[in-house]
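G., the chain you wanted modeled:
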Amino acid sequence: MKLNLKLSKLKMLAICLLIIAGIVFYYEEIKENEVNISTIDVIVAVNDITENEVITKDMITKEKRYSGDVMKNNDIVKTESDVIGKRTIVPIFKGEPINSNRIIENKEYMNKKDQTQIALTLTEVDKALDLKVNDYIDIWVEPISQAQENQISMEPYKFIQKIQVIKVHDINFNNINNQKNTVIEDTISTTTDTVYVPSYITIELDDIALKELYIIDKSQYNIRITRYGEEKFYSVINDVFEEGF
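Predicted structure as C-alpha cells:
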C-alpha cells in the first residue's frame, strides 16, 4: 500500500515537472518568437479610392504591417501628412498600403479642371514603344474584336494627338524616368544589364478629354498608344482585322 502511494507521488511529481518544462519552453521559445515579430505603421485606404481624387483624412487609416515586407518597398507611405491633400493618379483599393508613386501634389489648376494628370496602362504591344519622359504620343481607340467592329461599323480612330509623356512607370508603378538600368520581368537575361519596361505613363488631359476617355467602354475597346505622327497604327490594325484572330 505504501509502495503504491509512493509510486503515485512520483507520477504526480513527474507530471508537474513536465508541465513546468512546457511552460518554460513556451516562454523561452514560442513566446519570445512572437515578441520578436517586428511591425511598422503604414497608411492604407479605408475604402476604394478612384483615380484623380483628392485624399482626405477619412479616406485613410493606419495599420500595422510586417516591417520586413514594408522595408522592401521604400515608397510605402508611413505618415498621414504625406497623403492627405494629395491627388491619386491611379485607383487605390481598400486595405492597400499607399505608394507614393501613385499620388501627386494637388495643384491649383487641377481643381479648376483645366488639366489633370492621369496614368494610362500600356498594352503589351505598346510597351515596345519604349516611351521616355517628354515624348509625344497619339491616343487611339480600337474595337477589341473584328466582330465588334463589324457590329457597329466602326474603325479604329485617333482619340487625341500630341500629348506629352510626363512620367513613365514600371509594372510596380515605380518611377523609371531616371533609371539607367532596367529589368525585363519574366525574362531570363545572361547579361549584367537590366532593362526597365514601361508599363504605365502619366499624361495630362483637359476636363473634356478626360470625361470622354472615362466613358469609353473598356470591355469593348482598347486604348492604344503610338508615337506622335506615326500613322502606321491605322493600317496595321486594319491588317489585323482583315486577317482575323
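The domain at 39-106 is CATH 3.90.1210.10 (Type Iii Antifreeze Protein Isoform Hplc 12).

Shout if anything looks off.
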